Amino acid sequence: xxxxxxxxxxxxxxxxxxxxxxxxxxxxxxxxxxxxxxxxxxxxxxxxxxxxxxxxxxxxxxxxxxxxxxxxxxxxxxxxxxxxxxxxxxxxxxxxxxxxxxxxxxxxxxxxxxxxxxxxxxxxxxxxxxxxxxxxxxxxxxxxxxxxxxxxxxxxxxxxxxxxxxxxxxxxxxxxxxxxxxxxxxxxxxxxxxxxxxxxxxxxxxxxxxxxxxxxxxxxxxxxxxxxxxxxxxxxxxxxxxxxxxxxxxxxxx
Amino acid sequence: xxxxxxxxxxxxxxxxxxxxxxxxxxxxxxxxxxxxxxxxxxxxxxxxxxxxxxxxxxxxxxxxxxxxxxxxxxxxxxxxxxxxxxxxxxxxxxxxxxxxxxxxxxxxxxxxxxxxxxxxxxxxxxxxxxxxxxxxxxxxxxxxxxxxxxxxxxxxxxxxxxxxxxxxxxxxxxxxxxxxxxxxxxxxxxxxxxxxxxxxxxxxxxxxxxxxxxxxxxxxxxxxxxxxxxxxxxxxxxxxxxxxxxxxxxxxxxxxxxxxxxxxxxxxxxxxxxxxxxxxxxxxxxxxxxxxxxxxxxxxxxxxxxxxxxxxxxxxxxxxxxxxxxxxxxxxxxxxxxxxxxxxxxxxxxxxxxxxxxxxxxxxxxxxxxxxxxxxxxxxxxxxxxxxxxxxxxxxxxxxxxxxxxxxxxxxxxxxxxxxxxxxxxxxxxxxxxxxxxxxxxxxxxxxxxxxxxxxxxxxxxxxxxxxxxxxxxxxxxxxxxxxxxxxxxxxxxxxxxxxxxxxxxxxxxxxxxxxxxxxxxxxxxxxxxxxxxxxxxxxxxxxxxxxxxxxxxxxxxxxxxxxxxxxxxxxxxxxxxxxxxxxxxxxxxxxxxxxxxxxxxxxxxxxxxxxxxxxxxxxxxxxxxxxxxxxx
Lengths: 254, 633
Ligand SMILES: Nc1ncnc2c1ncn2[C@@H]1O[C@H](COP(=O)(O)OP(=O)(O)OP(=O)(O)O)[C@@H](O)[C@H]1O
Ligand SMILES: [Mg+2]
Fold this sequence. Notes:
The complex is a heterodimer. Chain A is an alpha/beta fold.
């Protein structure tokens, strides 16, 4: 479903900076992959390239057999809002809109019927537990609620590939468990492929596979076995093996 | 780094943010300075030019100065508005209120200083141009040479440094009221929709309809009485229109999900409603300022064409004083003829005795048909041939451009009364004719058959009138003749009326008014434009952030352009359309005051403004779209 071949990214500037080096990665339809790595290792950069918000310096990206980076601007915009769903690190909600309007935004742009939009929004809001705040404005809701709104918006049009940058970054452990359970459910029920960047081993343990990157290079990957507890332990081990001191990660979760 | 250095660097490093504020301040200074160059021109102070002009110019200068105060204040506050978050952060980092006020104060002084200097320098560049324009609009004999405007520089510099100083103090005072949370969340929280009440919305409609209705239904001098109430009512109506009706409409739209949720509508209208309060204020201000500009320029232009369109069939008319003897009349006409001769003017002259008779307890003028026809043939008009025992009522057709008099028309009472002959026979008038054949000040008179005329008996009062009709194309000579007649000793000048010369004199006196009016009108119109520009660009960063957010989800270029286009178009055209309607109504009222058709003039003035606005829209839209598009990839 998603194939990266030798993707590299060099940030031009006063000093050119090589953020990614020869990344090759394959994701199956319906697979749930987590990406982990120390801060500054290039995770967000990678996600931006996959989400077509940034272009790779060299290498190819293929989604569902299409090469989105080769598309014209308009076609690319359409591609984004039909095939992809995003959950951004900073939510990326529009504060001029209410929660409900934010959720249906991708659909309105495509000219979906109002009734259908209402139904879908309602259904998703129910399942994410945000039905009560649908009429509120974004500055009136908490970070965790905003996160769920962002998830609702990312999945309302049933994208084939859902990309999430630290979806639990702003949440306490209870809330992040809820969010992860939701993402897992979406992944299982809708067979949506999921690619998630995270610092949180707990969150990563919900995935089928964790890919570790370091200094812009693929470091290693581990697959989930039978139990999540064991997977979680393996992730922790890998992190300490990789990063020296585990503070990098524990500091993110308070 | 001291705090003062920090403030200084803040301005220099945030150039882009400050540039709009700086430019509009500079523009204001430039306008005032150009005006000062003109007003302080040596040609005026040497006293060859009318005192009224000087007075008019000081008044205009005052208006422009007061206006620039508010303009700069507005620019300033919208500039501060866009920096709320910055202040919030500074306060959070421990800057005291006093420090922030000091910073804003210093910034303002700095910007103000450079704006003043820059405005004066750019003004100097335009100085020659403005003097040339002035020279042509004003009918003055002197040429307005370029000069070193020391006085203008000093006055402008001092008054603007003073103005910026006051504003800086003023602004640092208003700043302190905000709460920290509000400052930091400032750009997320809508400043709120003004309250919309149905009653007020209806009131808005009623006020506008009432104001418009009155303005276009009154006639003649009543227009003058109605003017101030109508202006107040319409201004209020406009305010309510933008603060109430617009809120009402947007509410309606937002509640109607089938429209609001269609394609890009949500982006467009959510934004409009988010900034409704700011928008309503801007709309109102722009509408009113533009109305002033349109009406000022429109009526000045209208006036001018009314004056120049005044048609009198006779080039010169002479009406002696009541007790002037035949000899004096003879002497006067000879003098006039002599001057006409001197100037080589071809003219035909007719003179006439005007006999007034007592009819229905009033004095009525009665003319014999042959006298009437003599004049009619002079100006090539229709002759009148009343039957014996018939009296024709002639309504003096008002010269276009005269203020329409109040009360019943003269012909009405003339029709009701009847002419009594000496032998007691009565002539009942049967028809009315409108004509301007006779050079008389009477509003109406009778024309009777020559035979009946002889049977009228002795008149109550006698008057005299002499008129000259010139060949076409002797305008310069007649103006020269007019000047000579006016320079004669004695009171001949008060008895003669020379249309072309009078128009020339009026135009001469009117030139400065026209110039000043044009100047103020243009200043207002341009500043209305910069209000709009400010409104748009204050939120540019926020807009960019918004479109960037949407672009990440997927927004095509054409969708973005569509939203931005609609947004800018609504901002630019809704107040201007209102102003155009206001202006059209005002000019209609003016034309009814003078009973003079101003359709061409109004369409020309309003049309040009609409066109300029369109041009302005196209340019600003281009810049804006280009700016916003930078977020698309
Ligand atoms: N626009 C840019 N221009 C230049 N360098 C950049 C740019 N964006 C990121 N970088 C650099 O690329 C490297 C990778 O950045 P990236 O944001 O991908 O890290 P990350 O893995 O997401 O880190 P974190 O976990 O802290 O979010 C960093 O060293 C960063 O400094
Ligand atoms: Mg990151």
